[in-house]
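Hey, can you fold this one?
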Amino acid sequence: PRTWRGRILLDGRKMGGRMSRGIFGVGPTIIKFKDTSHKCLHDEIFGPVLSVVQVKDRDEAIAVENANPYGNAACIYTTSGEHAQYFYKRFSAGMIGVNIGVPVPREPFAFGGYNESKIGDFDITDDGGIEFSHGGRK
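Sure. Predicted structure:
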């Protein structure tokens, strides 16, 4: 039998429900894990769901983040500029927020992700954005 390794800190199942035919939603949900083996840490969840992994130190946190095949975005919330810089320099993500969520470009633009997260012909948050808006001129 599968062992549940998470603890629900905020349960949004009662706030959610059927959104449309075959699609269900949840309200704000926070789940805390002690390791990275649970399926919801490896699949994209569309909804206000925050999965938190408890780690022993910041190097393990970087290893967990960078082991993910996706790299669209990462965030760090901290009062320490030293911690913010440490994580910013080591995260493998296209968009990084420090004490704020990340900007997510709208269609028709590509996501600014790294690794398996990039979708589209080019990255609007990099040189592709200049090429798109200025025809390659800066």
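The mean pLDDT is 77. Let me know if you want another pass with a different chain boundary.
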